Amino acid sequence: MNSRIEKTALLTTLFTLLALVTVAATGFAGCKSVNKKNAEETARYIADIIVAGRGIVASNQGLINDPQKGDKGFTPEKVAAEIKAKFKEMTGTDVADLPPESREVVQQVIDAAMMSVKMNQKRINQKGKGYKGYIPAVFGRETGQILKGRCNIFIKQTTFKYRNAYNQPDAFEKKVLKKFESPDYPKGKGYGELVGNNYRYLRPIYIKDACLKCHGEPAGSTDPAGRKREGYKVGDLRGAISVMFPVK
Fold first, then answer.
1. pTM score, whole prediction
2. What is the mean pLDDT of the chain?
3. Is the pLDDT assigned to residue 7 strictly greater than 90?
4. Residue 77: is it exposed, middle or buried by C-beta count within 10 angstroms (0-12/13-18/19+)?
5. Residues contacting residue 123 through CB under 8 Å, at least 6 positions apart
6. Strand 154-158 versus strand 191-195 pairing type
7. Is the pLDDT score of 25 beyond 50?
8. Residues near 150 by Cβ (< 8 Å), separated by ≥ 6?
9. Sheet hosting strand 191-195, strand order edge to edge
10. 19, 58, 146, 163 - which has most CB atoms within 10 Å?
11. Tally of CA atoms within 13 A in the half-sphere of 40 that contains its CB
12. What pLDDT sits at residue 209?
């Protein structure tokens, strides 16, 4: 395996483990089960926050990977503010104006996102180094791991063409991903259902311009991390944000 890939994977694992230890040692508020009647709405909001955060990390790759700059100003507070602004743009609603139960859960997700950014400040602000490895997939995975370590909220970025085994789809996710691939399924529409005592929801994610540097053409060529590009084009289905949490 490419040594650069191995180093990036190791760094990601170490940062995630450190984040989980920090979660346990801080006052990060615990999460509660969500009422069934609010489950779909809450799941949709959670996915929207993750999509917003991934987009912000993607659009700031030039800044994050600038070897000429030390302090990038890409702080947890800045990212949280941009996530909230993007969330309002996507949904037409301020986080502060969400129903109390959904607002509490959404804030937990934002707090986890802030923690991911905080744990990566040294890496992001390293001067003299280009590619840092803090990409949308890493942001999403770390945010999900932080939530999983403290709450009963499970978030995964799943796809049939997964690069990390953690993102491999389970049976439910495979079923929904196949729905998203169908030309008859409305593009952009999420899908959720109650599975036992949990609510499961997937929101499709599509390739945008910012994704092409790592996932675009030509297929098989090497991206900045040393991995093979998939050959996607703008608008192609990349996969989905998978959300699961207990309901009452």
1. 0.84
2. 88
3. no
4. exposed
5. 11, 15, 132, 133, 134
6. unpaired
7. no
8. 23, 24, 28, 30, 31, 112
9. 154-158, 237-246, 198-206, 191-195
10. 146
11. 7
12. 81
Q: Give the 3-state DSSP-derived string for 88-128, with helices as H, strands as E and coil as C.
A: HHHHCCCHHHCCHHHHHHHHHHHHHHHHHHHHCHHHHCCCC
195, with CB counted inside 10 A (0-12, 13-18, 19+), is exposed
Helices (H) and strands (E) in the chain, counts: 9, 4
Pair of tokens at residue 135: 């990409």
- Determine contact, residues 165/45, Cβ cutoff 8 Å: no
Binning pLDDT at 50, 70 and 90, where does residue 231 land? confident
Task: Determine the structural domain holding residue 191 and report its residue range.
Answer: 3-246
Distance CA(55)–CA(247), nearest Å, equals 29
3-state SS assignment for residue 181: helix
pLDDT one-digit tens code per residue, 44-55: 999 999 999 999
Q: Which two tokens stand for residue 140?
A: 């999403």
Other Cβ atoms less than 10 A from the Cβ of 150: the count is: 20
Q: How far apart are CA 214 and CA 230, in angstroms?
A: 8
C-alpha dihedral (102, 108, 109, 114), degrees to nearest 10:
140
Q: How many domains does the chain have?
A: 1
Q: What is the distance between the alpha carbons of residues 93 and 187, in angstroms, rounded to a whole number?
A: 22
**Position with higher pLDDT, 13 vs 64:** 64
